[in-house]
Amino acid sequence: KQAEKAVHQKKEQSKTKCRKARRRHINLVAEFNRRQRKNIWLETHIWHAKRFHMIKKWGYCLADRPTEKSYRACYRAMTKHCLLQDLSYYCCLELKGRENELLKQLARICSPDTGLTFETEFCLSGRFQGSLDLYRADRYPADFLGPVTFIWKPGDVSENRQLWIWMHPALKQDILGELKAIFQCSEPEEVCIPKPCTTLIQEEKQTDIAVSLGKKRKKEDKEGEKDVPVKKIIGDGTRDPLQPYSWASPATGVVISDQTMEILRYRLIGPLSHSVLTETLKAAALQTV
């Protein structure tokens, strides 16, 4: 019986791709797209999955604790070098509209008694990030919503401004609902269905067909060239891909957009953080037309 079981397992393994085929770039990307259909992966997921214990929280797969039994490496990086954290799972809401209209309504959900506000001068210029506590409209100090961080788009000299607000995914629905209420944003009549959903299903079917036939798969686009799949982040852990991601207000002219997983965010901690940024980021040359 054991010999028969071993032969049966060997036949099953022979149907799957060998390691060399699985490690091809085109197959790695297809696998990346397929496996995040239930829980959204961050772009640094594969690096973390090899070194950390992963947990499923708020619709994401997140790194919880390192597989090493010692935390000295992280502590040493924080105190002497640089430690990077991927905070892309934090939700980002983008507000666009006239500056006076934005400040007028946002003043209803925060209070100067708690510290900074959206109209603090050095934050309003866009040079610094601010943090504050949000409340239900005109309900301070009751009905606390939660803490957020924000930054204005710098360099805007016109009336129209752009504001990004980051919050924990557990707070997103409450804060989004309050923002839509104070700016009188209406639900869009038509919901845009993103292309990655259909593309993922097509890729998965093509992969299954290729495996069943046991032949090498060469994908080609319409022009006959090799079509290499791209990593796709489908929606985010707090929103279904079929739900709307933008809301406009005919009354105030403000547009609220859900930019979660569209704007990535990383946190650098340690005395060499600034040195790492200056060595990594290079200013682009100005192009004049």
Automatic annotation (TrEMBL):
InterPro entries with a match to the protein in the record: Pop1, Pop1_N
Domain of life: Eukaryota
Coiled coil spans: none
TM segment ranges: none
Domain Pop1 N-terminal intervals: 4-97
Gene Ontology cellular-component annotations: nucleolar ribonuclease P complex; ribonuclease MRP complex
GO biological process, one term: tRNA 5'-leader removal
PANTHER family for the chain: RIBONUCLEASES P/MRP PROTEIN SUBUNIT POP1 (PTHR22731), RIBONUCLEASES P_MRP PROTEIN SUBUNIT POP1 (PTHR22731:SF3)
Protein name: POP1 protein
Organism for this UniProt entry: Nothocercus julius
UniProt gene name: Pop1
